[in-house]
Amino acid sequence: MSIETTLAHRVQEAVKNLYGIEVSEQQVQLQKTRPEFEGDITLVVFPFVKAARKAPAQVAAEMGEALQGDLVEKFNAVQGFLNLSIAQTYWLEQLQTIANTENYGCHTRTKEDGTQPLMMVEYSSPNTNKPLHLGHVRNNLLGYSIAKIQEANGWKVVKTNIVNDRGIHICKSMLAWLKFGNGETPESSGKKGDHLIGDYYVRFDVEYKKQIKDLMAQGMDEETAKKEAPLIKEAQAMLLKWEQGDPEVRALWQKMNSWVYAGFDETYKQMGVSFDKIYYESNTYLEGKKEVERGLKEGLFYRREDGSVWADLTQDGLDEKLLLR
Hints:
elongated; 12 helices
């Protein structure tokens, strides 16, 4: 029984004893005490004033005296509002009950066919070119909490993680490590693998911006410089090799991703979160490409001059979405 229900029953008894009237549980108005007043729960006494034939402040004081005891340790009245402070012993008893009850609050749930309903909760979804950031921390804690809460509510929950382990951003880290890493490893640097790879992702951006600046100094406009900078062209070429299954590029990709995964695992362990199934974009992106190509043939999407495929969602009040570079 909740504290509100217990308190409502006490109020019903007090009203009957004090004023000789019976009130329903629905007539008992309880609300959280406002922060500027002392107390936990506030009882609105105005519904009892007419029957009591007394001023609201007097009714509140009389109700407070009647309720004070094992459940309510003290009270204060503000006109027709009675602020009640719940006794610490009550909360300790509730805590002890929870501690002594196995699977407290948990429920069983079955479908009509007798099987347990299934739910998938997906969270984390990191990129393998940098460490987990604050947004991932929030995502991890929310996802894992929801999964455990739903398990307690009788669902069979599959906790999943979709890892973005391929693409141009991954190749940027790989290329920077090849050019500037001098064979550095997590062991030689003393860094977590995901932090090490993140450093090279940042290094790529620093060197890339230098090249853009140099090209602009030679008279090239910024947009053209971004496309013509040697580093971005090399990264794009590396991505193409990866997609073609080039053995050397794939071997480098696997090695650097393994460093990142080791770093991720350390972070997940420290946070106390886990997964039942991990999906990798490298295993699914081709299926996505097939769907994009099908949508292109059916006229759902369109291709720009640079070869990229887009979905035009402007008629729905949204923007255009890049689907395939």
